[in-house]
Amino acid sequence: MIKGKNENTDYLDIDNHKIRDAFKELPDSIKIEMLKKMYQIRHFETQTEQFIIKGQIHGTCHLYVGEEATAVGAVYALNKDDYITSTHRGHGHCIAKGADLKIMMAELLGKATGYCKGKGGSMHIADITTGNLGANGIVGGSIDIATGAALTCKMKYKDRIVACFFGDGAANRGNFHGALNLASIWDLPIIYICENNQYGMSMPVKESFNIAKISDRKLSYNMEGLTIDGNNIIEVYNTVRHFTDYCRNGAGPVLIECLTYRWKGHSKSDAQVYRTKEEVKAWIEKDPIIRYKKALIEEGIITEKQDAEIEAGVKEEMEQSNKFAEDSPFPDPSQVQEDVYA
Amino acid sequence: MQNKREITYLEAIREAMQQMMRKNPDVFLIGEDVAEYGGAFGVSVGMLEEFGKDRVINSPISEDALVGVAAGSAVTGMRPIVEIMFSDFITIAMDEIANQAAKIRYMFGGKATVPMVLRTAGGGGTGAAGQHSQSLEALVAHIPGLKVVMPSSPYDAKGLLVSAIEDDNPVIFIEHKLLYKNKKYIGHVPEEVYSIPLGQGDIKRDGKDITVVATSFMVKKALETAEALNQEQGISCEIIDPRTIRPLDIDLILESVEKTGRLACIEEACGFGGFMGEVAAQVAEKGFDFLDAPIKRISGKDCPVPYSLVLENEMIPSHERIKEGILSIFKNA
Ligand SMILES: Cc1ncc(C[n+]2csc(CCOP(=O)(O)OP(=O)(O)O)c2C)c(N)n1
Ligand SMILES: [Mg+2]
Description:
The structure holds 2 protein chains of 2 kinds. By secondary structure, chain A is α/β, with parallel strands linked by helices. Chain A has helices spanning 28-53, 68-76, 91-96, 101-108, 141-155, 174-185, 205-208, 218-221, 233-248, 277-284, 288-298, 304-327, and strands at 11-14, 17-20, 83-85, 162-167, 190-196, 199-200, 203-204, 224-229, 254-259. In chain A, α1 runs antiparallel to α11 (288-298). Chain B has helices at 9-23, 47-51, 63-75, 94-101, 104-107, 137-141, 154-166, 217-233, 250-260, 275-287, 309-315, 319-332, and strands at 6-7, 27-31, 56-58, 79-86, 117-122, 147-149, 171-176, 187-188, 202-205, 210-214, 237-241, 244-246, 263-270, 296-300. In chain B, α9 (250-260) crosses α10 (275-287). Chain B is globular and about 60 Å long. Thiamine diphosphate sits between chains A (62, 88-89, 137-139, 167-170, 197, 199-201, 262, 266) and B (32, 61, 63, 85, 89, 92).
C-alpha cells in the first residue's frame, strides 16, 4: 500500500529520495480528519455537479473528483499560516486549506454571502484568512503569484512557506520557467506541486511534453524534484512534509509532480472524445479515498462503521451548505462597481 | 428558386477556414484543443479529420509562444490561423502581438509581411467572470500594424475571415461567444468563397433619427432595442456595424450622422479608453457640425466582468440601458 514502506525504519524510498515517514507520527485524530476532508471534497463536487445539471450555476466549474489525495495530503503537511495558491480546478485545495463549504457553495451560486460576494465564482475563490491566495482562471496564473508570496516569506514571514498547485498543462506556460528560475536563484521557500492528471483539457501529457517526468524539469533550475503517486495521500503527505522542513531551512524551492487523474470531464461541457471509458474506469479503480480508508481500517484507526459515519456526517454538512447557499440573497446590482480599487 | 442556406456564426467561421485551407496549403490552424476537441467552443470540429494533424495542430498551453511561432512562420511564407481560446488570454501574448507581429513590417522598412490571423472568443454573458469575459479590442486596435475585426453575423464572419486570411497583415479576429451557436442569430451564408473588404462598415438597419454604432454582440442588442424604440416611441435608429474596427470606416458613420444629427455608440467593453471613444472623437473632429446633440457612449461599467448573473447583467449594457441611453440624447436636444 505505501510504496517502499519498511517496518524497521522510519524512512521510505520515494522516487529515489529518502523520505521520513512523518505520517506514522500523526495523531489518529488528524489521520481521520484527512479522510473527512477527502469526503468533503468528493461530496462538494458531487453536489456542484448536481447544481450544474439543474442549471443553478451560471458559469463553468472544473471538478476535482479523483484528485483528493493530492490537495489534502499536501495541505496537511503545511502549517496553518503557510500559503497556498490554487487553480481553475480549485475546490479541493480550498476545502483542504479549511474553507467553509457553505460560503464556497454560496459563491458558486453567485450569492452575496459567497467568498467573493458573487464577483468571482468557482474560478476565483480565495480565502486570505486561511492563507489561500486563490483559485485562478488563467492556467499557470498562480505560479508567479505563489513565487511572489514566497519572496514575502523570505523577506518578512521567515517561518512561512508556500505551496503552489498547478496542472500539467500549466507547466508549459512561459511564466513557469521564469518563476522557477527566480525561485531557484533566490532560494525561495516554495513547493511547486504539479498535479499531473494526464490531460490539459484534451491534450494528453504524452503529447504536450517530450520528457519522461515533468519533475525532470528540476534539472534546469538545479532544484530538488520528484514524481510521486498523487492518489496515495500518505505518500503525498510524507513527501510534502519532508520538503516543508527543507524549505523552512532555507534550502530553496522543490518541484513535486503528483500523478493523478480527473474522473469528470474537463469542465461543464466536455464530450471527452480524447480518452477512453476503459482508461477512466481503470483510474476510478485507484480511488484515492477508498485506498486511504482501507489503510486506516487496516491500521485499526477506524472501523468500517466509523468510516460510514464520517461520510454520513459530511453529507449532512453538505445538505446544510446547500440550504445556506440556496437561501442566501443575490448581490445587489448596485454593488457591481465596488471593490475595483482599494 | 434556390433556397437561401442559413447557418450559425460558428459554422460560417469554420467554413471560411475549411475553404481557405482547401485552397491554399500554406494556411493552417494552430491552437489549444483545436484538434480532437474541436476548440473550446467547437469551431474547428471535424477539421482534424479533413486536414490531419499537420494542419490542425494542438498546442500545449503556451499562448505567447503560439502567437510568436505563428508570426515567425508567417514571415517565412506560411499563413497561420492561431486560435486563442478566450480573448482574455491575448494579454499573455501581448509582446508577440504588439511588439513583434504588428511591427515587423514597419521596422524592417516594409521588406517583410506577417500574414497571420489570430482568432479569439471575446465578450461576456456566460458567467465566466473576470478572466474569461473581457472585451479587449481597444488594446489591440491601439497598435498600428494590426487589423482588428469583430463580426456580428454569420455572413460577415465568413466574408471577413476569408479577407483576414488573404490579408498580408496580422489580423486580430474577435468572435463573440454568445453568437456562436445561438439559432436566433443564424443567417444566410453563400456556399461559395466570398470576401468582405476589411475596413468596410455595414448599415444593419436604416433609420433617420439617430445613428447607433455598435460592434459584435452589441449589434444584436442594438437591433432589438431599435425595434422596441420604433414601436414604442416612433424613433428610427440607423444601426452601423463597422465590422472592422481597424481600419475604421469612419466615412460611413459620418454620412449617417450627417443625415440623423445624433450619435450613440454601444460597446460591451469598459468605456474608459475604449474603442467607441475613438469613434466619438473622430465624429467630433470631422462631423461636429452635423451633430444636433451631444454624443452618447453606452459601455460596459467601469469594472471587471463579475460572475453572478445579477452583477454581470448590470455590468454589460442591457437592452434597457441602451434604450435609456438613446432616449437621453433626444431629451438633451
Ligand atoms: C492561459 C490559459 N490558457 C488556456 C486556458 C483554458 N484552459 C482552462 S483549463 C485548461 C487546461 C489546464 O490543464 P492543466 O493545467 O493540466 O489543469 P487541469 O485542468 O488538468 O487540472 C485550459 C487549456 C486558460 N484558462 N488559461
Ligand atoms: Mg491536467
